[in-house]
Design a protein that fits this description.
about 100 residues, mainly alpha
Length: about 100
């Protein structure tokens, strides 16, 4: 159970790499040069969910495993920063997609 947060962070980071690559080549792949919302919003939602789960599992590991407390604390902080960053992107994209 102690390795689950790291796996979730790695999977979420792979989604970030895919998003970054799509942004880089969006001029040649999509008609308007902008990634459509039906691709962008689900990807961001998955990232937010994965990082939230990583926070939850890191907190569980932090409270249950006393010997590796510093590692789980650092994992929780890393997952929280990734979660907050992706959550702000998701809120911003939802705002522009539906209310902008």
């Amino acid at each position: 159970m102690s390795f689950i947060p790291l796996i979730l962070i790695i999977i979420g980071s792979i989604f970030e790499i895919i998003d970054g690559t799509l942004n880089l080549v969006s001029e040649s792949l999509f008609k308007d040069g902008v990634i459509p919302d039906y691709i962008n919003l689900p990807s961001l939602s998955i990232q937010v969910l994965l990082f939230l789960l990583a926070i939850i599992f890191s907190t569980i590991n932090l409270l249950t495993n006393k010997s590796t407390r510093i590692i789980h604390f650092c994992t929780a902080i890393m997952a929280m920063s990734l979660f907050l960053g992706r959550l702000s992107w998701l809120i911003n994209n939802i705002k522009w997609a539906y209310f902008g």
